[in-house]
Amino acid sequence: MATSYFSESYGLNNYYSTANNERNTKTEVDATDANVEPPSELSAEALKQLKENNKELLERVKQLDDNYKRALADGENTRARMFRQVEETKIYAIQNFCKDLLDIADTLDKAVNSVPMESLKENDHLSKLHQGVIITNQQLQSVFRRHGLTVINPVGTKFNPNEQQAMFEVETKDKEPGTVAEVLKIGYRLHDRTIRPAHVAVVKTNN
């Protein structure tokens, strides 16, 4: 019984002694680590490498920033271009339809101008019919204007190749050289786009 008690006491003492030794050893190691000071400065080679790395990173950041700004600008330009295209599509969607109606307008205009005034005075029925054609032509022109289609009738103005097509030149002293002497066929523009140039005779310039 005494032997057993002694053994147990000895075992406990041995356990506590070992634990204390481990704690003391750990404390000494921690103290040693705490007393270790980091190097006061980097080597010249390491410092040079860090500076080079920093320079490369700054250049990379600048490049990425430039690419980002360029991508934003390209995106904005694309958006604006698409918006303009959509708006132009809306505005000029009726262009082909308008061109088809121009022949009708030409026919009505010829009908109005082809009847002699004497015949209108002598024939009341013809006069009423002529008046009806005039009203129809006026209504058609009103519809044209409402949808942005306007007449190009440049008599007496300076010749403009963007809106007029010169068919021939004429000599006259009454008008300034380079101006439109006569309109053979009126032109039309849809908003700011010429869809049919006016066919004109231009006063000949003196060489």
From TrEMBL:
Record localization: Mitochondrion matrix
UniProt xrefs under Pfam families: GrpE
The keyword Chaperone is annotated on this UniProt entry: yes
Keywords assigned by UniProt, alphabetized: Chaperone, Coiled coil, Mitochondrion
GO annotation terms (biological process): protein folding; protein import into mitochondrial matrix
Top-rank lineage group of the source organism: Eukaryota
GO MF term (any one): unfolded protein binding
UniProt keyword annotation of Mitochondrion present: yes
Coiled coil: 40-74
Function of the molecule: Essential component of the PAM complex, a complex required for the translocation of transit peptide-containing proteins from the inner membrane into the mitochondrial matrix in an ATP-dependent manner.
PANTHER family xrefs: GRPE PROTEIN, GRPE PROTEIN HOMOLOG, MITOCHONDRIAL
Protein name, UniProt field: GrpE protein homolog
Originating species: Leptotrombidium deliense
